[in-house]
Amino acid sequence: MSNLLQEIEAQIAGVKTSVAKQNVGAVREIGDGVAKIEGLTDAMLNEMLDFGNGVTGLALNLEETEVGAIILGDYTSVKEGQEVRTTGKLLQVPVGKGLLGRVVNTLGQPVDGKGPIKNETSYPVEKIAPGIIRRKSVSQPVQTGIMAIDAMIPIGRGQRELIIGDRSTGKTTIGIDTIISNARLNKAAEAAGDKEYRPLYSIYVGVGQKQSNIARVINVLEEAGAMPYTIVVVASASDSATNQYLAPFAGCAMGEWFMDNGMDALIIFDDLSKHAVAYRQVSLVLKRPSGREAYPGDVFYLHSRLLERSARLNEKYGNGSLTALPIIETQLGDVSAYIPTNVISITDGQIYLETDLFYQGVRPAISVGLSVSRVGSAAQIKAMKQVAGRIKLDLAQFRELAAFAQFGSDLDAATQAKIERGKRIVEVFKQPQYNPISVEAQAAILWTAQNGYFDDVAVEKIKDCQNKLTEYLTTRKSALMAKLAKEKALSDALTAELKAAVTEFKQTYK
Amino acid sequence: MKITKQARRDAKQLFRSCLLNGLLDENRVRQVVQQVIAQKPRGYLAILSHFQRLVKLDVARRTARIESAVQLPENLRTGAQTNLARRYGPGLNVSFMQNPDLIGGLRVQVGSDVYDGSVRARLAALAEGF
């Protein structure tokens, strides 16, 4: 009770203090979530404005006689002539581990009906990216659990890797698979009491997505047990353009908290094409000059300042990291459109998904020729480097030779062998969705394929053989797999052991 | 009415010509309006409309409104006026108003700056705090 009395006394004392200066203005025009406000001579850029009745806005345009502000939340209650006050604060969102397992909106308010979020810290939505002094080059891997990516387009912690492709080619699935894979690794490390393992927390930001799609993603994450390590930030298609514009920045602030506190986080922006469209809408309503395809002139800066916030910090600054997987949807495979080229140039590589491959049954439909990871190979584990080093080249050669083979001319034995090997590698890389594979299993499978143990298996039976081999290795040769996972490299002894295991398996496989 | 960039520029120039020692001169403003109406340059209505807006904003910037629950005694009025002149410089139009809704205390507004020392504002702040 005495605490309560002290609290009330403190509140009253606070009110008694001298009169503070406030800066006010009046709404001159309101529409489409954007208000023009007269007055507010002291407003700062990106400052939060108080419209009263719990409605807040963000000052985006500071003009000679008025201020252009976007309204967060319900703008229909704002009326012309209404009084608006400056708050002296920048837009902030709650951050911290309390958000894990929760679904929140752009302002960090829960939308999953699981009650209020316990947090003690808030971070500004807009923040300057870490400078070069604080950074370190990428050196630790992000295991996506997708063999084609982990082998050929490896991603490192702190990297920005774009996932680009047409509609329904499996872009979101790659992101979800990565979240699930890392949640499994986190869980396994927790269960084993591995102190050296650095858990990777995930943030999924849905921008302009259908609510049904977001619900499906949440459902998949819950079923896979990945939600305890994941934050979902939602600004669906039915949210205002202002919320859609701010959602990636809010998600990024949540990820930065993990990075600043020496932890690793992964953020998926699904997708930045819709984010650019939302920003275009806000800019046009604010009457900012438009440029190419009616996007404002600073649409490049919008994405570059967002993605630049992903980084790997050095030991002096906590050794944390924030990995970004932005998603871009192309129209009819046109990667040379405005927003795709912008984001391609900002990121450290891209995973390009092709519609044709998808419908040929090659899933994930990754186009090996157009996909690249500029920094990730430094983060790949040694065992993977040993087995996957030549695979990209083999596949490229296979595609070239396969194109020639279509003419039906006779081929020499070496070319035939290369084509047959290529077909098998393509089969090996096929993987069902939400089914990540551990890195040691990936290394063992790729070693088997590279060393010709699949050559005598019919192409249509490769998948069956691969699954049975994985099962055999994980159940009957678990000690070997554990050793491979621990050593992270294929030593001569380990190679001999793996060779014996695969030979033994091949004798029994029919 | 659509106000073109050119009209805005012209109105701004006219507005600047009405300033005398940094303060708006009423006679010059009247002269400008009469001259523009007499000469009728291209888009003169838009120019005048924007000119009026600029004048309105400047007048608002230089207007101090002092609200109180009861009528203020003369010595308090002069005290408030001198304090405001010291802070915002000369040329301030001060108007006094009575507003019983304030319950007690003063609410002073100069342009977009508000100093709210009324009982109503303090009660509102207290309600927000709880």
Description:
The complex is a heterodimer of chains A (510) and B (130). Chain A is α/β, with parallel strands linked by helices and 510 residues long. Chain A is 40% helix and 19% strand. In chain A, strand 3 and strand 4 (56-62) form a beta hairpin. In chain B, a hairpin with a 2-residue loop joins strand 1 and strand 2. The longest helix of chain B is centred in the middle third of the chain and has 18 residues, at 44-61. The radius of gyration of chain B is 19 Å and the shape is elongated. Chain B starts with a helix and ends with a helix. Chain A binds chain B through residues 11-12, 14-16, 19-25, 38-42, 65, and chain B through 53-54, 57, 60-61, 109, 111-117, 122, 125-126, 129-130. Strand 1 (21-31) of chain A pairs antiparallel with strand 6 (113-116) of chain B, so a sheet runs across the interface.
